[in-house]
Amino acid sequence: MDIPILKIENFLVVTIQAEMSDDEVLKLQEDILSRIKEVSASGLIIDITALDVVDSFMGRTLSNIANTADLLGAKTVVVGIRPAVALTLVELGIRIKWNLNTALNLEKGIEMLKRRIGT
Amino acid sequence: MGDFVLSETEKRISINSSADIITARGAGREMAKQLGFSIVDQTKITTAISELTRNIVTYTGKGRVIIKKIHSDVSKKDGMEIICTDKGPGIESIELVLKAGYSTSNSLGLGLSGAKMLMDDFNIKSKPGKGTRVTIKKWLR
């Protein structure tokens, strides 16, 4: 399953459309990071509206993507976390280690990126 | 049988690869939905299944999960039980692995402790060299 990575202005937008196996998640991580470098993106939005489960593996991978993207010069915002998923993540104890910026939806995510990058 | 559908009350899934994690999650969510669990509880159950089956794939490579409907004569409540078994190396110190953040595989270390926090009931039996069995339960409110 190849997940499209779209470019809007200087941002990359990735919409996860279905549940992914661990291997697919790791491949996506690689694809996103090489694409950031390729187009010198300054921001990255990952939309996880379609995900009804975010377990510790997915949480860690999203966090890894954000940290690595940061090193490459791009800020990350994760958008579309479902309320039930958010509650589960908090109970799972992930909030302690998960240093991700989140926004309610794509529009708010783009606003947040623009504020953070100052464009 | 008339025109009603008997709902399935037990599912067994072999866990051999990371793709099986998705199958187990799907089966768990379906049963949780069928039993009438709220969306939040469905998500918690599915996430707990994900953590436990990933442990099987990561640490032992091979195991089995049984997902079934249960009933308590004490509380008169229905619920769901998930039993994950493997014949892997076992766990030396259960106390240690249940500490949030403990990990030998560079993950967040939230697998077992996370599954415990998300469910109502958690039981683990492990023998070094023999394997591990984790049983979790969630009751309908």
Care to describe what's here?
The complex is a heterodimer of chains A (119) and B (141). Chain A has helices at 22-39, 56-71, 83-92, 106-117, and strands at residues 5-8, 11-15, 43-47, 75-79, 101-103. Chain A has 119 residues and is an alpha/beta fold. Chain A has a five-stranded mixed sheet with strand order 1-2-3-4-5, with helices on both faces. Chain A is globular. In chain A, helix 1 (22-39) runs parallel beside helix 2. In chain A, a hairpin with a 2-residue loop joins strand 1 (5-8) and strand 2. Chain A contains four helices and five strands. Chain B has 141 residues and is of the alpha+beta class. A five-stranded antiparallel sheet of chain B has the order 1-2-3-5-4, with helices on one face. Chain B is globular and about 35 Å long. The model of chain B has no long low-confidence stretch (mean pLDDT 88). The chains are: A alpha/beta (119), B alpha+beta (141). At the A-B interface, helix 2 and helix 3 of A face helix 1, helix 2 and helix 4 of B.
Task: Count every helix of chain A, treating DSSP H or I runs of 4 or more residues as helices.
Answer: 4
The amount of beta strand of chain A, in percent, is 15-25%
Distance between the termini of chain A: 34 Å
Main β-sheet of chain B: number of strands, strand sense, barrel status? 5 strands, antiparallel
| Poorly predicted runs of 5 or more residues of chain A | none
Q: What is the average of the pLDDT values of chain B?
A: 88
Annotate the secondary structure layout.
The complex is a heterodimer of chains A (119) and B (141).
Chain A: E1 5-8, E2 11-15, H1 22-39, E3 43-47, H2 56-71, E4 75-79, H3 83-92, E5 101-103, H4 106-117
Parallel strand pairs in A: 2-3, 3-4, 4-5
Antiparallel strand pairs in A: 1-2
Chain B: E1 10-15, H1 18-35, H2 39-60, E2 63-71, E3 78-86, H3 94-97, H4 111-118, E4 121-127, E5 131-139
Antiparallel strand pairs in B: 1-2, 2-3, 3-5, 4-5
Helix pairs in contact in B: 1-2, 2-4
